[in-house]
Amino acid sequence: MKNNSSKYCLLLGTALLGLYFQANSVHADMTGTTVNGETAHSNVTPMVQTNKDEASTPQTTTDWSDLAKYQNDIPVQILGINDLHGGLETTGSATIGDKTYSNAGTVARLAGNLDAAEESFKNANPTGTSIRVEAGDMVGASPANSALLQDESTMHALDAMHFEIGTLGNHEFDEGLAEYMRIVNGGEPTKQYNEAEMAYPHVKTGINIITANVVNKSDGQIPFGMQPYLIKEIHTSDGKVARIGFIGIEITSLPILTLYDNYKDYDVLDEAETIAKYDQILRKKGVNAIVVLAHTGVSTDKDGSTKGNAVDIIKKLYQIDPDNSVDLYVAGHSHQYANATVGSVKLVQAIYTGKAYDDIIGYIDPTTNDFAPNSLVSHVFPVLSEKDAPNIKTDANVTAIVEDANNRVAPIINKKIGEAATTGDILGRLHNTPTRENAVGELVVDGQLYAAHKVGLPADFAMTNTGGVRADLHVNPDRSITWGSAQAVQPFGNILRVVEMTGAQIVEALNQQYDEDQAYYLQISGLHYTYTDQNDPNQPYKVVQVYDQHNQPLDMNKTYNVVINDFLAGGGDGFSAFKGTKVVGIVGQDTDAFIDYITDMTNDGKPITAPTMNRKIYLTAEQLAKADADSQSQTGTNQNTQNDANSQTEGNQLQEVPSQPVSPTVTLPTTAGQPAETVTLHAQSKQQTVAANNQLINLTPTSINGQKQKATDQQAALPQTGNDEDLALLLLGNSLMAATGLTIIDRKRKHA
């Protein structure tokens, strides 16, 4: 028996080690990824280290590399921005690191802050070269002084700020890629726009737009003659020469971020694989200093962690090619602050709408055409207001471009369209309740439901993606609302349609708000619902009770008419529940619908007011149970009555209880700038809901055509080395084999 136990220990330990190596074969050198005809192997998982920003200006930063160490190298500064969105005069708060700066932004102040940063760099590095870059979404979702001019005023401002290189974001596709390239190249409009745009100078910007992973479906080529990368050759005044490469990357979730017609002709290739491909091409050309401009999101959170799609892409790049030569990754899309190092790659993102900028300084060794080791330092700085930084000059040339744009569009945007009931702006998505409701968003969908009825289309509900509601509704001191204020809220001009949806599909759409950490959510009109927790880390909440405006529960099999925009109809923001729905009729443009709603309400003697935000009610399981108990107590309902009510439910349909219970009241939590509200919850018992065939389709997320199609900026987690289960197998296997060895040694001693 003792002899056999040693064998069994040895066999078990060997088997466990085999399982460990089989589980980790994806990391072993025997398995690789083909890039540009070559196979790369890696078991590297790069560390993510957050770089803390504490200074508000480059001049007060103390951690720039010691230039005395790099006297033989070439100083280079990269100044970057992302997600400008035509924000010529946009201001707001900018939180960077642990500090929040107020009144940050405007392109004229951005220009001045960039000039001051470049001046500071060149004072310390007289032979240095400064390069300005952008990571996409310079246009689209813009205020009127840009949108009414087809964002040409924004492109003129970027040109005046000496931006040299940029890439595509999803909003560059808003009116089709051909129109964006027309704007970049300064061509005449191909269709009739407003008088201000038709008279605007159509001038070539001089910005090089690069994209490596957007290709034509027809031939696999990059469209409109764009290049995948750009090599900039740097010549210094003291005779040194170096080259630096830039690669442009579009986000692969483009199909859920723009209209189908705008992306249907293109494929968007995998970000990491594309970077690896062109990184190798550049290295073969002798270019080892490489910058990626990528419209992919990332954030550095208050807890000091940096995470997001860009981090995942860089990690995947290391899996493909651990010897990659990417030095800097300028990110965009998620509108958040980020500054980190992933492996050896500096990763930055400068919030959005010109409130901040990236400032990266390093030294290229001319003998290697790569940044000297440890020389690259990255920072993100706020665009300080004139009050906070009076020594930084506001750029006069850029100011003139903005003033010219304002004068051209003034007759349109200053036209009064209606009135508000009180003074003070009606607030939007930057002032959400904890349940992701905001006053402007609900005003918008109320207007869309109204617009459908106005044109004679039957509509029960309206829903819109909150990403399409871009600003607070500004109300002038005399309570007037202008065309420009309304357009800033709904700038896209998306087409509204009425579609048929079953109750089950509506619930699915509502549930799709609660995956992906609620990155995408809806504003709703004509219905209200209750949701609660569930034990699912991928979707921690689920909808449990849905009612129409008459407080009747949704019938899961009944067909309702819902107003949505064409972005949602294409599955935009990952709301796949809206895809393939039958169109009942077309309402018109969302911008026009919102403007007309404000005008009509005012003319009817109903000045605009902020809606009461009680359409999404969150309750814990205990609160749901209490609401049920209170309802039963107030109506004298007993368990037999409850069972009778349960028996009335057939299939997927939740029937109304014959004796409607008295509705309990629930107090919503207080949020900044908003008092607590007491609302009536028209709740049926949790037990009844469960009994109803465990539905509102169990009111958990379901799928259309057997598959939930929601996409995200956060890519699927990559296999990681050193995870706990693998380590346990390895340690246990080794332990058993070691124990076997000790047993054998001990026996040999006894037999000796």
From TrEMBL:
Residues 718-752 form the Gram-positive cocci surface proteins LPxTG domain. Residues 1-28 form the signal peptide. It comes from the Bacteria. One of its GO terms (cellular component) is outer membrane-bounded periplasmic space. Its EC number is 3.1.3.16. Keywords: Cell wall, Hydrolase, Nucleotide-binding, Peptidoglycan-anchor, Secreted, Signal. GO terms for biological process: nucleotide catabolic process. The keyword RNA-binding does not apply. GO terms for molecular function: 5'-nucleotidase activity; metal ion binding; nucleotide binding; protein serine/threonine phosphatase activity; UDP-sugar diphosphatase activity. Residues 628-673 are annotated as: Disordered. It holds the Pfam family 5_nucleotid_C. Transmembrane segments: none annotated. InterPro entries: 5'-Nucleotdase_C, 5'-Nucleotdase_C_sf, 5'-Nucleotdase_CS, 5_nucleotidase/apyrase, Calcineurin-like_PHP, LPXTG_anchor, Metallo-depent_PP-like. Residues 644-673 have a biased composition (Polar residues). Residues 634-643 have a biased composition (Low complexity). Belongs to the 5'-nucleotidase family. PANTHER family: 5'-NUCLEOTIDASE (PTHR11575:SF24), 5'-NUCLEOTIDASE-RELATED (PTHR11575). This is LPXTG-motif cell wall anchor domain protein. It comes from Limosilactobacillus reuteri MM4-1A. The lineage of its organism: Bacteria, Bacillati, Bacillota, Bacilli, Lactobacillales.
